[in-house]
Amino acid sequence: PLQLAATVSRVVNAGPLNSRYLEGTAVHSGETISTGPDEGLSLLLARGESLRIDANTEIRIDSANHFALLSGRIYADSGQFVYREGGLNIETGFGRVTDVGTQFSVSASDESLEVAVREGRVDVQSEQAAYAARIGERLTLKAGEAAVVTELDTHDAYWGWVADLAPTL
């Protein structure tokens, strides 16, 4: 049986790629969501967290708390959750991103992984090493290079796309 993983809570500029996802649509484990240019959507996850999927993103929904970000950018908000046993898990080509209880974005491509933390802490486990990114930090991993951590203000213009995809109440 299909496991309910999320419900679509907001759609921005639904185009041909995500036109089957309307507000209120159930999303089940095993589905892959792709967005085109200018498209985006927000999911309300089964446990209450929210996940925002930016334009030009492909993500596979493995379960209500486990995802594979194949390419593009997402933003997760775990609300009031602070996890003891780990929260949301996002697999990328560069490693696993684990939410400890926070607001953060993950961008993945064939060349790099970027994790930006707006609140709380996120753990990143790559094949080579483990990292922690904290509030106001952006961690960038590229193949064959040392990890780079830069500052990113929690009110930086970088976060503008997140507001555009805020879930509808």
- Catalogue the unreliable spans: none
What is the overall number of helices? 1
String of helices and strands = EEEEEEEEEEEEEEEH
- The proportion of residues in beta strands is over 45%
Give the oligomeric state of the chains in this entry, treating copies of one chain as homo and distinct chains as hetero.
single chain
**Rg over CA atoms:** 15 Å
Biggest sheet layout: 15 strands, mixed
Overall shape: globular
- Determine the N-to-C terminus distance: 29 Å
Residue-averaged pLDDT: 90
Classification by helices and strands: mainly beta
Q: Tell me the number of strands.
A: 15
Detailed description of the structure:
It is built from one helix and 15 strands; from the N terminus they run βββββββββββββββα. It has one helix at 160-164, and strands at residues 4-12, 26-28, 32-34, 40-45, 50-53, 58-63, 66-77, 89-92, 95-99, 103-108, 112-119, 121-125, 130-134, 137-142, 148-151. It has a 15-stranded mixed β-sheet that branches. Strand 14 and strand 15 form a beta hairpin. The longest helix is centred in the C-terminal third of the chain and has 5 residues, at 160-164. The two termini are 29 Å apart. The mean pLDDT is 90.
